[in-house]
Amino acid sequence: MTTTHAIESSTPSSEEPIVEAGTESAVVLDGVRKRYGDVQAVDGISLTIRRGEFFGILGPNGAGKTTLIEIMEGLRQADAGTIQVLGMSPWPRNVALLPRLGLQTQKSAFFARLTAREHLATVAALYGLPATAAGPALKLVGLTGEADKRVGDLSGGQRQRLAIAGALIHEPELVFLDEPTAALDTQARRDLWQVLRELKAQGRTIVYTTHHLDEAEALCDRVAIVVTGAVIALDTPHRLVGAAHVPTRVMVPVGQLSTDQAGALPGVIRVTVEGGSVVLETTTAGATLAAVGDLIGLDEVQTRTATLEDVYLELTGSETRS
Amino acid sequence: MTAFAALSTANYKASVRDKTTVFFTFAFPLLFLVVFGLIFAGQEVEGSGRNYIDYIAPGVLSWGVGNAALFGIAFTLMQWRNDDILRLIRMTPTPLTTVLASRYTGALVIGLVQAVLFVGVALLPAFGLSLAGSWPLALPVLLLGVTAFLSMGVVVGSRANTPEAVAAIANSIMVPMAFLSGSFLPIDLMPAWLQNISRALPLRYMNDGISTALTGSGDLATIGLSSAALAGFTVVFGVLAVRTFRWSNNS
Questions:
Q1: What residues of chain A have any CB closer than 8 angstroms to a CB in chain B?
Q2: Chain A interface, mutation test: which of B4, B12, B91, most A Cβ atoms within 10 Å?
Q3: Is the pLDDT at A322 greater than 60, yes or no?
Q4: Domain spans of chain A?
Q5: Is residue B250 one of the residues assigned to a domain?
Q6: SS3 for A91?
Q7: CATH number of the domain located at residue range(s) A25-243 in this protein
Q8: What is the ipTM of this complex?
Q9: A111: helix, coil or strand?
């Protein structure tokens, strides 16, 4: 049995300056469940995403992230629970809601044998927009130079960006992105971060999944960590890292400090030698660093504090092991 | 641009950029015309006093047009589900009727072009078809035939999930029906009981209607009955189509 300790989204966040999003809700899920045969893909998820919020859904493959997003989008019907998206029910197909949503899915869909511009012009028309909407959308994702290439001739990363352009062409209030940076190289990934930050600055709500924890930490106001269909943690990346008590690593070049000396310093819980460094794991980084400084100075000392990735691995690791 | 115009444009561009498919859509019925035209050149069907070409040309034309309408929409729906294009459309406010209307318009245009090309070739002296004055009445029958076979194609395309399945199901429907309805062999040569069975097949009515209009082999009542029967098949398969339609393979 796994025990879940979902941190309610209503946790006061008064001391957090980062969440400036409105109090109005973009998505409200209450007790949502979905089963495929023997697999309980979504096992009673309740959470609230505020308007203007950049909300990350993290979790291992098969955790139920995509199913959860598809239920919010109205592509799948939940077995149980209530779903409110921009104050409306997304299921059955809700034509009043659809123009306010934008979505990019893991498997991108393109009209056959069209160019990037023709594809986007077709998508624009499906939203009742003129073909000229294609130009700005291509520019937004940096594909202006590829506008007249057939979709089939684009690289994987370019197709991914074209799919994102299709999700944004009608300027939706709420954007769902399922692993939008999966096929992108480092530069394209950073470019997309900029696009996403601009969308957030315009007041749009973004719900997205990713396996890049550094990215989630850099972009998300809040993240939900989903394991086997349930939310096991939900908070700002900063507070998740703070609450996890993952030790800070202080690295000293080998030879300046013996492992015995290091082990005796205040706060040090473990000492290892890795890659030319004596690594001190400490829960009280300040005290340990001060002691190291007194002994050998801090010039060549490096520190590595816990990241969202450490917290994620700790949380998902313990959940999947139990 | 309206959603209808945009989808029709996308459909047209995708079609003309796939030249092989375009070529065979129009060449396929012509191939049958040439083959049967050569086999039965100058022969009369015993006891009827009519030339083979008068049976075969309208029959092969009806089959070719019906075949293209059924295959076209069935492949498109199957492919659009597999490529998630239907999911993309589903998430926009465009109604399903607009999507199907644009495909329907495309199928009508293809059917019309097929017919003009086919009759043009059949009129050549080598084949020797001569048109009766009632030939314009073939147009409403053609239109109703495309509609009936398109609605069958929606059912096939909604059930089948792979290109192989579409081809297998559609061929199992169209090939026996072509023989039983007299598209490839004069229906008057078939035993009476088989002729009665063919009354249950939409292609039989399309053959009768087109044949009457083009060659004057029947009267107005034949065309009226053919049109009514094709409209009836459309209603039946239309209801089935609405019931079997799926936006995606997993919902």
A1: 73-77, 93, 95, 98-99, 101, 103, 105, 107-114, 118, 121-128, 130-131, 166
A2: B91
A3: no
A4: 25-243, 247-305
A5: no
A6: coil
A7: 3.40.50.300
A8: 0.86
A9: coil
